[in-house]
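Backbone-to-sequence.
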């Protein structure tokens, strides 16, 4: 049971790490808390489900590209102008939650089913020390970890990645040396929403997607990111894996009704001991 709990927790944490990465990328670079990210990701998941009957690859591409475009446009025409006019965290909370309700309403209006499961192909099973695990679950975990590595490598070795770092560390200096910071913000927002969409697709394939899943993934992703250190990508991943283990073992030992109680109690304890998160925040809320 212990090994099964560990494996389940790591897989759940890996899937949760995708919206956490989205939050970390967006907030770490733009400094804007986007609470609509989970709902936008789930809308992309429903869009993927709709196109699955045509072609799986096209369906996933449509969902991910759509969410990237929404994130890019939302940042470009709404969030960045508000920030330039002196908008604070409270205003961004109101605006992004309102956007979340817009996309929840669109999901309800466009798609006929309130709950869906994405029938992605399975990869067989893998036996780990006597515990049988679906290959697709292992793939989801490896994909999440691989995404982290790609983001980190892009920060070090690509022009856009170096622009991210410069913009997040010193916005005024980045503008002075010619970096198009508004474009950097928009790309970061697009990537964050696309990551949330991928997380929603994995979640919908292993569990279910419904109209509330977006809020659950979005707020849980933001809370996990805060525990890891808001804007800190490594901290977010470590926090996601730990919280996945907490949810797994609390579910096994106490039942599903206690998962949220134990999870948020630990969140409170961690933030009392380390207010800036496990690895420290790269920005202040």
């Amino acid at each position: 049971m212990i090994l099964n709990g560990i494996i389940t927790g790591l897989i759940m944490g890996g899937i949760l790490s995708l919206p956490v990465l989205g939050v970390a990328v967006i907030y770490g670079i733009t400094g804007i808390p986007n609470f609509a990210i989970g709902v936008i990701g789930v809308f992309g998941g429903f869009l993927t489900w709709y196109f699955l009957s045509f072609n799986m690859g096209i369906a996933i591409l449509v969902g991910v590209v759509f969410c990237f475009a929404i994130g890019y446009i939302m940042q470009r025409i709404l969030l960045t102008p508000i920030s330039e006019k002196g908008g604070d965290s409270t205003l961004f909370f109101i605006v992004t939650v309102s956007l979340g309700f817009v996309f929840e309403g669109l999901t309800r209006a466009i798609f006929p089913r309130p709950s869906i499961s994405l029938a992605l192909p399975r990869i067989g099973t893998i036996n780990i020390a006597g515990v049988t695990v679906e290959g697709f679950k292992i793939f989801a975990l490896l994909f999440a970890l691989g995404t982290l590595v790609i983001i980190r490598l892009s920060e070090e070795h690509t022009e856009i990645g170096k622009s991210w770092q410069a913009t997040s560390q010193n916005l005024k200096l980045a503008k002075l040396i010619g970096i198009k910071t508004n474009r950097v913000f928009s790309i970061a927002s697009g990537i964050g929403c696309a990551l949330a969409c991928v997380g929603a697709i994995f979640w919908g394939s292993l569990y279910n997607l419904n109209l509330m899943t977006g809020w659950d993934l979005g707020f849980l992703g933001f809370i996990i990111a805060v525990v890891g250190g808001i804007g800190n990508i490594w901290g977010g991943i470590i926090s996601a894996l730990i919280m996945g283990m907490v949810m797994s073992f609390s579910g096994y030992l106490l039942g599903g009704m206690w998962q949220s109680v134990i999870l948020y109690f630990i969140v409170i304890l961690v933030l009392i001991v380390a207010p800036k998160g496990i690895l420290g925040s790269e920005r202040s809320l």
